[in-house]
Amino acid sequence: MKIIKMKLADMKKPEKNTRLHAEKQLQEYERSIRMFGQIRPIVVDDEGTILAGVGLYEALLRMNEDEADVYCMDGLTSVQKKKLMIADNKIFELGVDNLEVLNEFLEELKEDLDIPGFDEEILHQMVSDAEKVTEKICEYGKLDVEEIQKIQQIGERQKGMYEKTTQEDDAQIQNESKEPQEHETERTESDRKFVICTRCGEKIWL
């Protein structure tokens, strides 16, 4: 693959593009270019229309660059160009981050986490939190016998309190279910009927 230099003024964006480039992405493109330079070429057809690398092209324009590294693909049909544009955007999305290796790299770079594509403060927080978690994991299993017994006793007390509360609640529910809703059954006194009010205990003559 032959890479050539080409003026940005001689390139043009396609009329339609399958990828939209947000402001944040363009800012990160600029950070990357300032830090590493242009690390991949822009792909154009024989008429200078960009097939892959529109975001990179826009970032270079914003930085007032005059030219860029370009790979020119000649002889493609209209169908092939459309397929290339779709494939270039989609194939990248199919990759999956290896979080284990990413975390390992971040641990090694924790003194300098200025990395394009990431917020440096968030990365520092991630590494800091990871260290705290690692410390807790390392401490696990190192408790002495006395500490373990204390933890077990607290657990047993909490379990006992829960069971007692549950039993009391069940008993209260059963008692309430036995109480009459309004009044007790009718009673008679000297041939006069009355009921006992369950709230005040007074007789209510009928």
The dominant shape is elongated
Beta strand count: 7
Query: If strands are numbered along the chain, what order do they take across the biggest sheet?
Result: 1-4-2-3
Helix content: 40-55%
Rounded mean pLDDT is 80
Low-confidence stretches: 180-186
Query: In DSSP terms, counting alpha (H) and pi (I) runs of 4 or more, how many helices?
Result: 6
Which sheet architecture does the biggest sheet show?
4 strands, mixed
Kindly provide the radius of gyration, computed on alpha-carbon positions and rounded to a whole number of angstroms: 38 Å
C-alpha end-to-end distance: 108 Å
* Structural class estimated from helices and strands: alpha+beta
**Range of strand content:** 5-15%
Q: What's the SSE pattern?
A: EHEEHEHHHHEEE
Q: What does the model show?
A:
There is one protein chain. This protein is of the alpha+beta class and 206 residues long. The protein starts with a strand and ends with a strand. It is built from 6 helices and 7 strands. The longest helix has 34 residues, at 145-178. It has a 4-stranded mixed β-sheet. Strands 5-6-7 form a 3-stranded antiparallel β-sheet, with no helix packed on it.
Please describe the structure with a list of short key phrases separated by commas or semicolons.
7 strands, three-stranded antiparallel sheet, alpha+beta, 206 residues
